[in-house]
Amino acid sequence: MKNQKGLLIVISGPSAVGKGTICKELFKKNIENLELSISVTTRNPRHGEIDGVNYYFVDKNRFQEMIDNGELLEYALVYDNYYGTPKKYVIDKINEGKDVILEIDIQGAKQVKENYDDGIFVFIMPPSFKELKNRILKRGTEAQKDIDIRMKCAFDEIQHAKYYNYIVVNDDLDKAVENIYCIIKAERCKLSRYNLDLFEFKEEL
Ligand code: 5GP
């Protein structure tokens, strides 16, 4: 009995909801066969961010070249910067039977859904709007103007949660990570993921 292709797992949610932290904690669990897609972006690295670890940081020309060459699975303009998912890495891993997590915005998720309907779409919700603002302020990486933009975007983004398959509320980090892990485990067991080759059993009769 073979589980052929890996899962394509899309995680979205408003700015500062904790998507990055959730993914980081998830990967600390060393879950077998789980990979994280590293996005390409034209935004400047934040303090402590490393090229090739957090993102591949590129200029606009290189990003445009990647679009023109069909190198991106999806891409979007988010807060004045471009972000995209390198296609080859994701497709290769899925074909190897590995599950891949894409931490991307709602525009990108929509594009993925159009092309990979069997993807798993998870939306991370803040416990409240007030708490979300606190988290953005606490992060301290955005100017006041950007905070206002991100809050407005967050409101619009939350309206799109209904297009996702799962909602995970990040009121407690450990619980949120555990819920995502449970979703992945359950999805791995879905009948539709398997090729039920009965002859494999017949030989054992
Ligand atoms: P940040 O600048 O805070 O790292 O990310 C800003 C937003 O861009 C987040 O909502 C994040 O999920 C989204 N994002 C990151 N990588 C990608 C990507 O490859 N594609 C798309 N569409 N959005 C992305």
Write the layout of secondary structure elements.
Blueprint: E1 2-3, E2 8-12, H1 19-28, E3 34-36, E4 40-41, E5 56-57, H2 60-68, E6 72-78, E7 81-86, H3 87-95, E8 99-103, H4 106-115, E9 120-125, H5 129-139, H6 144-158, E10 166-169, H7 173-188, E11 194-195, H8 199-202
Parallel strand pairs: 2-8, 2-9, 3-8, 4-5, 9-10
Antiparallel strand pairs: 1-11, 4-7, 6-7
Helix pairs in contact: 1-7
Any overview of this molecule?
- The protein is an alpha/beta fold.
- It has a domain at 2-37 and 98-202: Rossmann fold.
- Helix content is 41%, strand content 21%.
- It contains 8 helices and 11 strands.
- A 5-stranded parallel β-sheet has the order 3-8-2-9-10, with helices on both faces. A 4-stranded mixed β-sheet has the order 5-4-7-6. It has a two-stranded antiparallel sheet with strand order 1-11.
- Helix 1 crosses helix 7.
- The longest helix has 16 residues, at 173-188.
- The protein is globular, with a radius of gyration of 18 Å.
- The relative contact order is 0.22.
- The mean pLDDT is 91.
- The structure holds guanosine-5'-monophosphate.
- Guanosine-5'-monophosphate is lined by residues 15, 19, 39, 43, 74, 76, 78, 83-85, 103-105, 107-108.
Structural class: alpha/beta
Question: Strand share of the residues?
Answer: 15-25%
| Major beta-sheet overview | 5 strands, parallel
Helix content: 40-55%
